[in-house]
Design a protein that fits this description.
Shape: globular
Order of helices and strands: EHEHEHEHEHHHHHH
Number of helices: 10
CATH topology of the largest domain: Rossmann fold
Number of domains: 2
Structural class: alpha/beta
Radius of gyration: 17 Å
Distance between the termini: 37 Å
CATH class of the largest domain: Alpha Beta
Strand order of the largest sheet: 2-1-3-4-5
Oligomer: single chain
Length: about 210
């Protein structure tokens, strides 16, 4: 079972999300939060596998809540957003969100997105992700740019995989691009995340864009 905490301040939207999630036999909604502070508190208490996190919430916004949840290793975070590509979304990616989901996503896509992130696949929709990452990379950085020296610890193959992540490719897409088994791709992704001290594929994709890999 995939244990999910739903954090959304609009009660009607939250109820709809919960209803959809509970329709799946392999997903369990273990808690609901109406603001960011409650989301963090419940994540600490319930230790869900995944937090479905709205970005704009009262008391503590979704970006700050995501940062706390990720920093404490409480759960993976799947961010809920409109497609405005605003600073909230970019902040959530920097904070370590494992993926993002548009609020107008169909029910079946929502369920698959939750399963995808639970499997460790952070890039939900490659086409949308590529646009998001490109928009992110085009914005002036508000934080110090990543140090290119961090790439020196990667093997040539790991750099190639990182480059593919930066283009928003899935494991299957990377396997096809680099002519390797999908299981091998997963191994390379896991290793490069560890070496770069990153929590998610999305963070790796953003880093690839920042460094021009």
């Amino acid at each position: 079972m995939i244990r999910v905490l739903v954090a959304e301040d609009q009660s009607a939207v939250r109820a709809g999300l919960v209803l959809i999630l509970r329709s799946a036999p392999d997903i369990e909604v273990v808690g609901e939060a109406a603001d960011g502070e409650q989301a963090v508190a419940l994540a600490r208490e319930l230790r869900p596998d995944l937090v479905l996190m709205d970005v704009q919430m009262p008391r503590l916004d979704g970006v700050s809540a995501t940062r706390q949840v990720v920093a404490e290793g409480l759960a993976d975070v799947l961010v809920l957003t409109t497609f405005d590509l605003d600073e909230y979304v970019f902040g959530a990616l920097r904070a370590g969100a494992s993926g993002f989901l548009l609020k107008n996503t169909e029910a079946t896509e929502l369920l698959e997105a939750v399963r995808t992130v639970a499997r460790g696949e952070g890039l939900i929709a490659p086409a949308v992700t590529r646009r998001l990452i490109a928009e992110f990379a085009a914005k002036p950085a508000r934080e110090p740019a990543a140090d290119p020296a961090v790439l020196e610890q990667l093997t040539r193959r790991e750099r190639e995989v990182l480059s593919c992540l930066g283009q928003g490719l899935s494991n299957a897409g990377i396997a096809e691009r680099l002519d390797m088994a999908e299981a091998t791709v997963k191994t390379h992704v896991s290793r490069l995340l560890g070496k770069l001290e990153l929590r998610s594929r999305v963070q790796a994709a953003v880093l690839a864009q920042e460094l021009g890999v």
